Amino acid sequence: MIKLALIDDHVIVRSGFAQLLSLEKDIDIVGEYGSAAEASKGLAINNATICILDISMPDKNGLELLSEISHRVDCIMLSVHESSLMIEKALDLGAKGFLSKRCSPDEMLLAVRTVAQGHQYLAPDLALKIANSSKINCFKQLTKREHQVGEMLSRGLDIKTIATQLGLSSKTVHIHRANAMDKLNVDNNVKLAKYFDSELI
Questions:
Q1: Which of 5, 14, 92, 145 counts the highest number of beta carbons within 10 A?
Q2: pLDDT tens profile 109-137
Q3: 39-43: which pairs have CB atoms within 8 A and are 24 or more residues apart?
Q4: Does domain 2-122 have CATH number 3.40.50.2300?
Q5: What CATH number labels 141-197?
């Protein structure tokens, strides 16, 4: 049986979740809390194994509460704020899942059961957002020349042609290519090309 606690300061939202989730035979709602203070006290005694935690709380940021309780209960964060920075911070603080407040009932159930099985859950669109953010951050590490060389390689140009077009020696182009591959953590031209084929560029 999954022992679930709900932490959200909006009574209507919290009650709606409780009503939905309590219909499932494998889920037992063991607590509902409208503030971080209530949750801290309640979670200490209700033996919840999973909690769904809203990031926006009246008395304390949900991320602060997450850092305090993630060692004793698996937390699935819930938020209208879906920036990659917010998601990554929540995961760094120990969150086992992250859901948008716009998620469907089926997705919430999937998240709860996935986390209950010991796995992490991220909605596909949020996982893609993190992947894209990571890719953008990698590109920011490239110098202008490394970027030029990588882009030209992705268009199918060879080292000699790139060297001629950029007015560089082939050896220098090889060095720029090696540096770009190292920064993007790829080990061949095909993988390098996939990065530069992305619409992020």
A1: 5
A2: 999 999 999 999 998 888 777 766 666 56
A3: 39/5, 39/7, 39/65, 39/69, 40/65, 40/68, 40/69, 42/5, 43/5, 43/69, 43/72, 43/73
A4: yes
A5: 1.10.10.10
